[in-house]
UniProtKB/TrEMBL annotation:
Alphabetical list of InterPro entries matching this protein: Acyl_CoA_acyltransferase, Bact_Acetyltransf, GNAT_dom
One GO MF term: acyltransferase activity, transferring groups other than amino-acyl groups
SUPFAM superfamilies reported for this sequence: Acyl-CoA N-acyltransferases (Nat)
A Pfam cross-reference name: Acetyltransf_1
Keyword set, alphabetical order: Acyltransferase, Ribonucleoprotein, Ribosomal protein, Transferase
Source species taxonomy: Bacteria, Pseudomonadati, Pseudomonadota, Gammaproteobacteria, Pseudomonadales
Protein name: GNAT family N-acetyltransferase
PROSITE patterns: GNAT
Length: 161
């Protein structure tokens, strides 16, 4: 694990950094399917307003990752959403660290015995990350990509010890 990683609640001043993380329409679709390209501060602020525990990871003092919960049921589960990592910070353990932080928040603040995530079939990096962290596929649902094509949304779960 990268010793230069820290996390904290996201603030309004972080949004300008975070909206630059998705590099193209596909990346934005993977982390925020309802958003319209390009992601802007207004769209991200709206997501944060209806979600919980928006969290940033800093790598060497710079905002490098972001995630939140889009669903939460105290004592039952939390569902991880909007997971994104800055292009310059990829392959440095940011996403794994962030998922682990969110699991800890789910356990401690929501008494959640289960974490849920959803990942599109074309997001190989995401699917491999979640598999490595112990998530198991529990379902596949059909969705539509921005171009109207059919895509599979893989639903995964992990018991939180």
């Amino acid at each position: 694990m990268n010793a230069n990683l820290q996390h904290r609640p996201a603030t309004a001043s972080d949004l300008g950094d975070v909206v630059a993380f998705p590099q193209n329409l596909d990346e934005l679709f993977f982390c925020y399917p309802k958003a319209i390209w390009p992601l802007n501060v207004g769209q991200l602020a709206a997501a944060i307003a209806e979600r919980r525990e928006s969290t940033v990871v800093e790598l060497d003092g710079k905002v490098a990752g972001f995630a939140n919960f889009y669903q939460w049921q105290h004592g039952e589960f939390c569902a991880l959403g909007n997971l994104m990592v800055a292009p310059w910070a990829r392959s440095q353990g940011v996403a794994q660290y962030l998922v682990e932080v969110m699991e800890k928040i789910a356990r401690e603040r929501y008494k959640a015995p289960l974490m849920k995530v959803s990942c599109f079939n074309a997001n190989a990096g995401g699917l491999l990350l979640y598999a490595r962290l112990g998530y198991q596929a529990v379902g596949i649902v059909e969705r539509r990509a921005p171009d109207g094509s059919r895509v599979a949304l893989v639903q995964l779960e992990k018991a939180l010890p």
